[in-house]
Amino acid sequence: MAIEKTVRAVDMKTILNFGEEGGKIVKKTKTYGDLRTDVTDEAFVSTAEAIAKLQEPIMEKKEKVVAEELTRTQE
């Protein structure tokens, strides 16, 4: 039996640095959902960089979150 993988959803999770507050670095996350399931790594990074230029807090990291469904198939 083989395993079939189907990509159900792709999200972009960003970690934002809001600077120091009360002696601690304040970081928050922002998730952008419903990306195309066939998004290329180049398009993903380019989009994240474009978003980073438009917002005030510093984007420290971007993560590609992929939800996949795995099913066993009969061969």
What does the model show?
The chain is of the alpha+beta class. The protein has a three-stranded antiparallel beta sheet with strand order 2-1-3, covered by helices on one side. The chain has one domain. The protein has one helix at 41-54, and strands spanning 2-21, 24-35, 58-73.
Average pLDDT, rounded to a whole number, is 95
Proportion of β residues?
Answer: over 45%
Distance between the terminal alpha carbons, to the nearest Å? Answer: 6 Å
Largest sheet: 3 strands, antiparallel
- Work out the helicity level: 10-25%
Helix-strand makeup class: alpha+beta
- How would you describe the shape? elongated
The count of domains is 1
Question: What is the secondary structure topology, with strand pairs?
Answer:
Elements: E1 2-21, E2 24-35, H1 41-54, E3 58-73
Antiparallel strand pairs: 1-2, 1-3
InterPro entries: DUF1659
Protein name: DUF1659 domain-containing protein
Organism: Eubacterium maltosivorans
List the defining traits of the structure above.
single chain; 75 residues; alpha+beta; 1 helix; 64% strand; elongated; DUF1659 domain-containing protein; DUF1659
Care to give the gist of this entry?
The protein is of the alpha+beta class and 75 residues long.
